[in-house]
Amino acid sequence: MPGYRRVLLKLSGEVLAGGASFGIDAERVKSLAREVADVAAAGIEIGIVVGGGNIFRGVAAGALKMDRVTADHMGMLATVINSLALSDALEQIGIPTRVMSAIEMHQVAEPYIRRRAIRHMEKGRIVIFAAGTSNPYFSTDTAATLRALEIKAEVIAKATRVDGVFDKDPLKYPDAVQYREITYLEVLSKALGVMDATAVAMCRDNKLPIIVFNLTTTGNIMRMSMGESIGTLIK
Fold first, then answer.
1. Collapsed DSSP state (helix, strand, coil) of residue 216
2. For position 68, what pLDDT does the model report?
3. Who contacts 95 (Cβ-Cβ below 8 Å, separation ≥6)?
4. Contact, 158 vs 210, CB < 8 A?
């Protein structure tokens, strides 16, 4: 039996770049789509929020001198590109999807409407939420938290390149210690940088658990969805 009925999966844009520093790696997107498809086949309803770092990084140097609002809007459009790429990969293996954008662009994606998103998920479609919250100054972590709360997801699953939450960066410090469980308050007070503070505070206020897990281990999305103890649980 699945551990969760409805999950919000938060992916960084960098995940879609594979081994490259930016851009979209078609093979990486296909393998990710296959993992997500297996979870959907198990009867779990899935919403996905993808970041835009893999595309926006390519113009990040120029964005430093831009107006913050303009730069944030560019980042939102990058998430739309990633969402379409992931949607296409899923559709090609027979998984129905809907891309719902917080910024209206009718020729490209459906506008985000909460009730319609829930209905899509109830019908077995994977819903990919694009364009963040449509507001500047909010990260895709915050967008993921907002969407998770709106669709009544039971958990936010934050996919990363490491095994969970550590006391310091495990990619830089070999002696970093992983937490199996940690509270929202500890994440905030220790500035662990798992998600931005706004997102963590929203999860805390609404008692929405966060699971941080390693996406580079094949099968981890399924293990997490089935309720296996992997990564770090923030609650």
1. coil
2. 86
3. 33, 36, 37, 40, 126
4. yes
Domain spanning 6-234: CATH superfamily:
Acetylglutamate kinase-like (3.40.1160.10)
Kindly list the domain boundaries of the chain, sorted by start residue: 6-234
Q: Is 47 helix (H, G, I), strand (E, B) or coil?
A: strand
Distance CA 217, CA 67 (A): 38
Long-range contacts of 108-111 (CB under 8 A, 24+ apart): 108/80, 108/84, 109/80, 109/83, 109/84
Question: Could you tell me how many residues make up the chain?
Answer: 235
**Contact assessment for residue 117 and residue 148, using Cβ atoms and an 8 Å cutoff:** no
pLDDT at 3 over 90: no
> Rounded distance, CA 41 to CA 25, Å?
24
pTM for the complete prediction? Answer: 0.94
| 108 Cβ contact partners less than 8 Å away, ≥ 6 residues apart | 80, 84, 99, 101
- Per-residue confidence band for 18, with pLDDT thresholds at 50, 70 and 90: confident
Closest CA to 46 of 144, 132, 135: 144
Q: Say what the pLDDT of residue 112 is.
A: 98
Residue 114 contacts residue 129 (beta carbons within 8 Å): no
Angle at CA 71, nearest 5°, toward 18 and 83?
Answer: 40
pLDDT tens for residues 65-118? 788 888 899 999 999 999 999 999 999 999 999 999 999 999 999 999 999 999
Task: Report the distance separating Cα 99 and Cα 214, nearest Å.
Answer: 25
- DSSP-derived pairing of the beta strands 97-101 and 126-130: parallel
- In sequence order, which residues have a C-beta less than 8 Å from that of residue 114 and are 6 or more positions away? 150, 151
